[in-house]
Every structure is written in C-alpha cells, then in structure tokens.
UniProtKB/TrEMBL annotation:
Protein name (record): Prepilin leader peptidase/N-methyltransferase
Residue ranges occupied by any Prepilin peptidase A24 N-terminal domain in the UniProt entry: 17-97
Transmembrane regions listed in the UniProt entry: 6-29, 99-122, 128-149, 156-174, 194-222, 229-249
UniProt-listed Pfam families: A24_N_bact, Peptidase_A24
Amino acid sequence: MGDEGWGAWLGPAAALVIGCCLGSFYNVVIHRWPKGQSIVSPPSRCPGCGAAIRWFDNIPVLSFLLLGGKCRHCRGAISWRYPLVELLTGIMAAGLYRAFGFTPSLFVFFTFGSLLLLIAFIDLDTYLIPDVLSLGGLVLGLAAAALFPHVRWIDAFGGALLGGGLFYGVAWGYQKLRNQDGLGGGDIKLLAMIGAFIGWKGVLFTIFFSSVIGAAVGLIVMVRSRRGLAARLPFGPFLSLGAISYVFWGEKLTAWYLGAL
C-alpha cells in the first residue's frame, strides 16, 4: 500500500481509536448520570463487586474480549452494552471522518451523534431523556448552525420549531383523544434538538424512518412479550437512529425512496 493509501486510512483509524476511548467515558455517563452520581469520581469500578478496574482491564472493546466478558476479580458478567457503546462511538467517528474529513462538520456531527448515543442508551435504561442533553443539544445545534456551514441557520431554526412543534401537536391530540399520554416530553425536546442540527428535512426523514423501524420492533416486542399494546418501548433510541442515519445516508435514501415512488 502506497503512502497515499496509508494516508486515506490513517485518519479514520485514528478517529476509530479516539471514538472507542470516548465511548468508554460515555458508558460512565450512561451508568451514573441518571442516578445523580459524579461522572468523574470515583474511577471505574465493577458494578458487582466494587473492585477498581485497572487501566489494562479498561482498554475499550479489547479488554472485554480478553476477559471473556467477565470481571477479573469476581468473574461476574460484564454487560454487552459496554463494548457496544465503545464500538458504536468508534465506528461513528471513523465514518464521520470519512464523510467530512478534518473539518468543522466532523466535530459538529460527532457532537450530535454523541448526544444521540447518550440519549438512546439512557432512554433504554430509564425511559427518560435528560433535559441537559436534549435542551443543551438544542442550544448547541442552533449555535453550530450560526457558526458553521453544515446547515443554514434558518433551516436549523425551522427544524427545531417543526420537530418540537409537530411532536407537541401529536402528543396534545393523543392526550385529548385518549385521555392519556402518548409521547413523552423528552421525545418532543429530542426532536427539537434533532431539527436544530440537521434542519427540517432531517426532521421529516427522522420521523418517517424512526416510525417505520419503531413499528417493526414494537410489533416484535408485543408478540414476544405477549403483552400486546401494554408493552413499553422507549421511542428515543429510534429517533436517535433515524437522525444519525440522515447524517450518513439521508439524501441517498430520500432520493431512492422518491425514485421508487
């Protein structure tokens, strides 16, 4: 492989490693933040026996594989979520580097993707989306649109209004018709944040994509759990998946869908 070939892979490889390392920290945030615990102190510990995790047992993905998915001290099982979050963050970083290079858009969309990942896994665990992530992300998205050219500011502002307003309208209508909550306030704020980062077109794509995938997964959950419509399923992960899918493939998937019609 020539110098040019190595150069084409060096950046994404570095992004992959950095992303995996950041994913290790994201695991701490996902585990501790909903409990109101510090994300800085104490250092990482086994949730089973409380033993401190040494640095050589805390290498992203690799340590999990070498330890066979078990704590070195108590041999208790380590959740698959830890290497998954690390790997997803690394792959996202590498993919964004390939798509945007070392540009402001790389950092904007990596920040966006990181927020989506944190929100998705916290929502899976708690059925709650922290306002500090969704509303904080909304502010960051609007600021990024004003400072960088990844999306026009007017599109970001319109996307935030469309995302938050549309879901608020749906939630209000559902509550009036059924006299019970349908969409949570966290989903409304999340979609507003999504609109701030990727504009109104991204909001429409995210709603369609997440609804299709969410309906399919929801049907499977209802059947397997045998609880029917009573089965609970957080919608935040599907919105997050739809939004990051738009960043990578939104225009191509939209063009393909419209062409198929």
